[in-house]
Amino acid sequence: MRRIGCGLGVVLLLLAAAGALAEVVMAAEGARGAISLGWLWFQVHGNSLVGFQALIEKGVSPAAWPPIQSLLTWRLWLVFGIPGVLLALFCLRLRRPEATG
Q1: CA-based angle 57:66:44, to the nearest 5?
Q2: Of 62, 64, 72, 74, which has the fewest beta carbons less than 10 angstroms from its beta carbon?
Q3: Are residues 40 and 30 in the same domain?
């Protein structure tokens, strides 16, 4: 189970790095704006984003959508980076040898 968490942490950190790099490249080309999770999702498959909104509003609660919508406006590197760092720190903590003495 620990290996899965560490592997997932590495994958999330790589996705965060890719998102940050994409923002740097876009800024170098003169494009304005940031790459958010919602923007990327819409670019990949916009219909599924609309369907996900309908699922949340009808299946869970209409009040549950605004916090999710807020998360979708966060920068991509932040959405993937925070859990990636937390998982990486957790894995490092688990691997730290105990002090004997």
Answers
A1: 80
A2: 62
A3: no
Q: Are residues 40 and 66 in the same domain?
A: yes
Question: Does residue 71 sit in helix, strand or coil?
Answer: helix
Domains: count for the chain = 2
- Range(s) of the domain holding residue 49: 36-74
Same domain, 68 and 46: yes
Nearest residue to 7 (alpha-carbon basis) of 90, 97, 76: 90
d(CA 51, CA 34): 24
Check: CB of residue 20 under 8 Å from CB of residue 85.
no
Q: What is the pLDDT along the chain (101 residues), one digit of tens a residue?
A: 778 888 999 999 999 999 999 999 998 998 877 899 999 999 999 999 999 999 999 999 999 999 999 999 999 999 999 999 999 888 877 665 665 55
Structure tokens at 25: 């490249």
- Could you give the count of Cα atoms lying within 13 Å of 38 in the half-sphere of its Cβ? 13
Return the pLDDT at 79: 95
